[in-house]
Amino acid sequence: MIYMISSWARICKTLGEQFAKYLPLVMPPVMRVASFKPDVAVMDGEAFYGDVDTEKEDPDWNFVSLGDQKLFGIKTAGLEDKATACEMLVCYAREMKGAFAPYVESVAELMIPLLKFLFHGTVRSAAADCLPCLLQCARSRGQELRTRLWAAFLPAFQKAIEEENDLEVLADLLHGLGLCVEELGSELVTQEHLSIISSIINAQITKYWERKKEREGKSKDDDDEDDDDPEALKGEIEEEIGVLARISDMIHCLFMVFQEGFMQYFDQLEGQFAPLLDARNYYAEKQWVICMYDDLIEYGGPGSVKYQHKFYGPMISALADENPEIRQAAAYGFGIMGQVGGPPYAQACAGALHNLVAAVNRPDARSTVEDTAATENAISAVAKILKNNASLIDVNVVIPTFLNWLPIWEDTDETPHVYGYFADLVESNNPLVLGANNANLPRILTIIVEAFNKGAFEDAENAENTKNRLIQIVKFLHVSFLLIFEHIVATNYWLLELHTRYIYSRAFMRSALVFV
């Protein structure tokens, strides 16, 4: 049966909402397997060990000592099937959305208690994944149902998170709660709910610090060789970072939904985050905390400036960090200061410019995908600063350097910002961009062509306007500077042979250009 259930999930992913007509057939067996309750027993230890090794006699049972000569046993047969069935329910809800609405209440009734299912972590994780999907499925049935569901979900999440000891599952629980908030928004998540969620975050970051201090204390104990196992320590740290990452995601979600309304709660939490910016901490700790401050700057309004003295120095240092993830997080933050920070961040933007340039010009700037993403975030940060917050900067000094960095193509979240500013410069006939006697037109055309060829806009959101502006620039060049245009094409054909012909045909077919 479990193989059939897995097959149905794959079919569901293929058909999407069209799979709904098969739900009356597949849901009963899936719900039955997901509702499985394992057999448990408490046994006397002497009787258990007196005659035979019962665990070896029946491998379907596992036993753990409860002390006082007592053993707790659980029959594990069926648990893996239960976990798989729960994951399939997540798949159905996620893929079918509104078409799954008739099953929301029954699945919610099943999943809420499973947030604390003691015997299998995957079951708890699946329940955490499922609940926000059910809220999305319930959209078509109105806010009253979603309100009732949320009233049951929040206390269940709160209790489960409080009691969870498995860090991987804890991260999933935090993620599920954050997705619920993102799905419901400020209309259904009240200030009372926000206070509860903030208390959950505060409790978890407090526990994070307790575990961190305990771990660091053990690592200094020369007498305990087992705790010095580097692989075990690495795995433990990775699990901890997973929890911190989900806390950071929750902060992002809360700022995104409540904007400045979350500031009063962030004020209560910030003191726990700031010490993680210390350079002596693990690099991923710094990365995720910088992301939290990025969200503070982006959504926190003018009130974010009061924390500038805490994050500015560490973020400047982060631009030169050997880990590209940290450089990317810091570069994004300075870009946000430029984009939305306004006059209160003008000095910070001007002060960061030299460090951003150095981050772009690193020898390893594009040596890996991660390095490329960090570099392109730094380029985007410069573009955002030059466009929006350059009151203390000589823009004319920086523009030639900015142009030399183009094209970018890897980070499609940033391409609309970079090429939007590039289009501003070209459309305004900026002399530094066009060059004397339009000498830079070949360079301008090459930047645009390479951007399209490398897929700079293929997965970019909100990029349509920027794409159209670049196409209009190419059309203008074709009409107004035909000889130069054809020379560029011919030169590039000669340099890049047939591949370049493909570049031009692909890039300009959309703009209805025809040239031979």
TrEMBL record:
Skewed-composition ranges (Basic and acidic residues): 212-221
Residue numbers spanned by region Disordered: 212-233
Biological processes, Gene Ontology terms: protein import into nucleus
Keywords: Cytoplasm, Protein transport, Repeat, Transport
Localization terms from the record: Cytoplasm
Name of the featured protein: Importin-5
InterPro entries, per the entry: ARM-like, ARM-type_fold, Importin_beta, Importin_rep_6
GO cellular component: cytoplasm
Main location per the UniProt record: cytoplasm
Any Pfam family the entry gives: Importin_rep_6
